[in-house]
From TrEMBL:
Its cofactor is biotin. It catalyses: N(6)-biotinyl-L-lysyl-[protein] + hydrogencarbonate + ATP = N(6)-carboxybiotinyl-L-lysyl-[protein] + ADP + phosphate + H(+). PANTHER family: CARBOXYLASE:PYRUVATE/ACETYL-COA/PROPIONYL-COA CARBOXYLASE (PTHR18866), METHYLCROTONOYL-COA CARBOXYLASE SUBUNIT ALPHA, MITOCHONDRIAL-RELATED (PTHR18866:SF33). It comes from Marinobacter lipolyticus SM19. This protein is a component of the acetyl coenzyme A carboxylase complex; first, biotin carboxylase catalyzes the carboxylation of the carrier protein and then the transcarboxylase transfers the carboxyl group to form malonyl-CoA. This is Biotin carboxylase. The keyword Transit peptide applies. Keywords: ATP-binding, Biotin, Ligase, Nucleotide-binding, Transit peptide. Signal peptide: none annotated.
Length: 664
């Protein structure tokens, strides 16, 4: 077995590989960019090398530097993880040329599946069923438009060299095709260096079911169950599970055998995933093959009891597969939720910030957390915004869902916006519990997935007051005289009762509370109502009784910014001080940046008349494009940035004079 390997990746997947390697007695070399100098994977590795500036093109994608570091450190093999160089044919070839084992398939297999159009031709020849569409070499706009008309609408434009939802567009009508093609080509070229597209018939109610396959160097192959990854947004998986609910054993076997056949058709070695579209009539079609370890591999590990990274290392060393097909068994049900730094209420815009408070559920046989961050880490614009993967297992799907709901309630983050509340609503939604799954699940059930807060605003304000006051008391210096009323940690006044004012700002609204404090309770006046409150704060855990209702919450108060966590929901407010004033809004008539990122394209110039909903600026953040649209009709009076500029959230991009003289 290898004695030392290098991991050409970062974040949670680097940490996850390190854990298995160390368990197997293998030393690990990490690489890191300037932005990741203090990252968790760097601290976990046996040694680490700086590889360049923060942009991945200058660090984690520098295959020449990675090869150089592998040779310098004495690493015998390189594990690419997923993303970055994991499906890069040239990198696999460079490893082979330098006598370094690439822990993945041979470069010929990556090349065969790296082009989605070439992959479809191979699968067609191997007898694997395909979705109708076009995957030819002629990439002229005229040919693609003509093939789109033949295919029919709706259709899916997909980057030939793509993945992760990038360079992909659903086109509903022929008149939308040209704009969608241009955008998909541009995004694909930026992400993969290849603008080529393929066209597929877009199935309206499909499920996304994929098969985990493994092949050794002797050509033997097995499949390790299937995963359902139907719950997606923008073609990116949000929640995955294994096994796929509702599949017959015949379909499961047919899919598995087709997946192995697909892998063996390209002389595959190592871990791979064959993705299928599963239609309502029970038919399934080859979509693509990912020639690497998948983000969602932990759900397969949980139901099979196998360590897929260990399998990768053994196969790369030349050992046979640990199990034959008849020995592969599954037990129970597992789900994985991807916890992202993003704002679901703002169309899932990527978020950045400092993880000033991070509390995760306790890990056990039922709960697993794969992460690459710790409290205090920065979520930057340079890399994917995934914070962690939360994986749960139990004997049945219903029990596993209950585990997931509970675990999400115990996952608490402050300092950066996350999708935890959204994931909690998703996992607890009745249609999901009933396995009413399609790739359109999120769009079909938006009302369920964006529920109103579980906490009444007044009750939340009372809890916030209790948290703030209890924390203040815990930090006050207690008098040495235990009998002195002046030493009490409350608002005691001689010959009177003093109701202290407390202002809490929620959004743009300022709520004025008055709090009468006695030794063992508070009387809180808010919005014309009176609440009797008793509370006790233990670190971040507040136990409270409000008018006889006992309630327990967690919270984090930092620089007057308070976040309360309750059953997967959050309540945020700021302790308002007169010197703060209200936060400045964007300048009158301006269009501001909704997140940190780079300006990719400006589609207007000074003097242009624009209409509401017209795309004026395209920004890129976390490797995805976002269209910034005009909020109203008007005339562009100024443009503050150029294409290629980096901008911060809230920065004015374009000034617009509204045609009706109202603020745009």
């Amino acid at each position: 077995m290898f004695s030392k390997i290098l991991i050409a990746n970062r974040g949670e997947i680097a940490c996850r590989i390190i854990q298995t390697a160390h368990r197997m007695g293998i030393r690990v070399v990490a690489v890191y960019s300037d932005a990741d100098a203090d990252a968790r994977h760097v601290a976990m590795a046996d040694e680490a090398f700086n590889i360049g500036p923060a942009p991945s093109s200058e660090s984690y994608l520098r295959s020449d530097k990675i090869i150089e570091i592998a040779k310098e450190s004495g690493a015998q093999a390189i594990h690419p993880g997923y993303g970055f160089l994991s499906e890069n044919t040239q990198f696999a070839e460079a490893c082979e040329a330098n006598d370094i084992v690439f822990i993945g398939p041979p470069s010929s297999a990556i090349a065969a599946m790296g082009s989605k159009s070439a992959a479809k031709a191979i699968m067609e020849k191997a007898g694997v069923p395909l979705v109708p569409g076009y995957h030819g070499d002629d990439q002229s706009p005229e040919t693609l438009r003509a093939e789109a008309e033949k295919c029919g609408f709706p259709l899916l434009l997909k980057a030939v060299a793509g993945g992760g939802g990038k360079g992909m567009r659903v086109v509903e009508r022929l008149e939308d095709f040209d704009d969608a093609l241009a955008a998909a080509k541009r995004e694909s070229k930026n992400a993969f260096g290849n603008p080529d597209m393929l066209i597929e018939r877009y199935l309206t109610q499909p499920r996304h079911v994929e098969i985990q396959v493994f092949c050794d160097q002797d050509g033997h192959g097995v499949y390790l169950a299937e995963r359902d990854c139907s719950v997606q947004r923008r073609h990116q998986k949000v929640l995955e599970e294994a096994p796929a609910p509702g599949l017959s054993e015949e379909t499961r076997k047919a899919m598995g055998e087709a997946a192995v056949k697909a892998a063996q058709a390209i002389n595959y070695v190592g871990a791979g995933t064959v993705e299928f579209l599963y239609d309502v009539d029970g038919s399934f079609f080859f979509m693509e093959m990912n020639t690497r370890l998948q983000v969602e591999h932990p759900v397969t590990e949980m139901v099979t009891g196998q360590d897929l990274v260990e399998w990768q290392l053994k196969v790369a060393w030349g050992e046979p597969l640990p199990l034959e097909q008849s020995q592969v068994k599954t037990r129970g049900h597992a789900l994985e939720a991807r916890i992202y730094a993003e704002d679901p209420d703002q169309d899932f815009l990527p978020a950045t910030g400092n993880l000033r408070y991070l509390s995760t559920p306790d890990e056990s046989v039922h709960v697993r957390v794969d992460t690459g961050v710790t409290e205090g880490d920065e979520i930057s614009i340079h890399y994917d915004p995934m914070i962690a993967k939360l994986i749960v297992w139990d004997e049945t799907r219903d029990q596993a869902i209950n585990r997931m709901v509970q675990a999400l309630e115990h996952y608490r983050i402050a300092g950066v916006k996350t999708n935890i509340r959204f994931l909690h609503a998703l996992a607890d939604a009745q249609p999901f519990r009933e396995a009413d799954l399609t790739t359109g699940f999120i769009d079909d059930h938006r009302e369920l997935l964006f529920p109103k807060s579980k906490l009444d605003t007044h009750k939340a304000l009372v809890l916030a007051a209790g948290f703030v006051l209890e924390q203040r008391k815990s930090r006050e210096v207690v008098s040495t005289d235990p009998w002195s009323p002046f030493g009490r940690q409350n608002s005691w006044r001689m010959n009177s009762e003093y109701a202290q004012p407390l202002k809490l700002q929620v959004g743009e609204d300022i709520h004025e509370l008055k709090v009468l404090e006695r030794d063992d309770r508070y009387q809180v006046h808010v919005g014309g109502s009176v609440y009797n409150l008793t509370s006790r704060l233990d670190d971040d855990y507040l136990q409270a009784v409000i008018n006889g209702h006992r309630i327990s919450i967690h919270g984090n108060l930092h620089n007057d910014k308070l976040v309360l966590f309750y059953e997967g929901d959050t309540f945020q407010c700021t302790v308002y001080r007169e010197t703060y004033g209200l936060e400045e809004m964007a300048g009158e008539g301006s269009l501001s940046a909704p997140m940190n990122g780079a300006v990719v394209a400006i589609q207007a110039k000074v003097g242009d008349t624009v209409t509401a909903g017209q795309t004026l600026v395209i920004m890129e953040a976390m490797k995805m494009e976002h269209a910034i649209k005009a909020p109203a009709d008007g005339v562009v009076t100024d443009i503050f940035f150029a294409e290629g500029d980096q901008v911060s959230e809230g920065a004015d991009l374009i000034a617009i004079e509204a045609s009706d003289e109202e603020v745009a």
